[in-house]
């Protein structure tokens, strides 16, 4: 926590090194989280950039309360996605594989990966809104349970319950999909 507090103080002093460190450490995680939520690479890049701009503009109102800087950034990202969805007239979700970079050059492996991703995206889409938020923040954003709780304004226990129920539901949906494929 000492490092987090000193990072927060550096951000408040508008120390370029502190801002560069936070940007380097969190940009890709924020981008992945947003890309999963909006389904568009270009929009996700724009929104991720806006998260850091908004953070820079509002750092003077940030008060250190023992909450990791990442939770604050992901709260801003969460709000940016909500604002985007309110104002966007475009398609909200395009295939996830367009948002992910792949080093696979084997077309068979690439096709299998894309099929797996589609199945996971469909299964995640069937979760409740709260379950989806937890799964996306935990696994796309890479946040801890405590950080997710801070972002969503819930207790850690509630986040753990949501995560558990979401993973059980995903496991059932994905295993039933595989069973159907094996029958064919």
Top keywords for this entry?
8 helices, 184 residues
User: Which architecture per CATH?
Assistant: Orthogonal Bundle
Number of domains: 1
- Average pLDDT, all residues: 82
Low-confidence stretches: 91-101
Assigned CATH superfamily: Winged helix-like DNA-binding domain superfamily/Winged helix DNA-binding domain
- Note the beta-strand portion: under 5%
In short:
The protein is mainly α and 184 residues long. The chain is 75% helix and 0% strand.
Secondary structure topology:
Layout: H1 2-12, H2 16-38, H3 41-58, H4 69-87, H5 107-125, H6 129-140, H7 145-152, H8 156-183
How does this model look, in words?
Helix 3 (41-58) crosses helix 4 (69-87) and helix 5 (107-125) crosses helix 8. The chain has one domain (2-183): Arc Repressor Mutant, subunit A. 75% of the residues lie in helices and 0% in strands. The chain is globular. With 184 residues, it is mainly alpha-helical.
């Amino acid at each position: 926590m000492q490092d987090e507090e000193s990072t927060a103080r550096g951000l408040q002093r508008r120390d370029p090194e502190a801002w560069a460190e936070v940007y380097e450490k969190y940009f890709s995680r924020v981008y992945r989280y947003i890309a999963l939520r909006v389904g568009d690479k270009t929009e996700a890049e724009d929104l991720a950039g806006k998260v850091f701009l908004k953070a820079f503009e509002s750092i003077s109102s940030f008060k250190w309360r023992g909450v990791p800087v990442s939770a604050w950034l992901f709260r801003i990202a969460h709000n940016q996605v909500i604002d985007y969805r309110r104002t966007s007239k475009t398609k909200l979700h395009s295939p996830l594989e367009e948002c992910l970079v792949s080093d696979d050059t084997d077309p068979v492996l690439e096709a299998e990966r894309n099929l797996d991703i589609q199945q996971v995206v469909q299964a995640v889409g069937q979760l409740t809104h709260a379950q989806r938020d937890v799964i996306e923040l935990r696994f796309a954003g890479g946040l801890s349970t405590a950080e997710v709780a801070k972002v969503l304004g819930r207790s850690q226990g509630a986040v753990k319950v949501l995560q558990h129920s979401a993973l059980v539901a995903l496991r059932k949906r994905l295993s039933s999909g595989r069973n159907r494929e094996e029958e064919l």
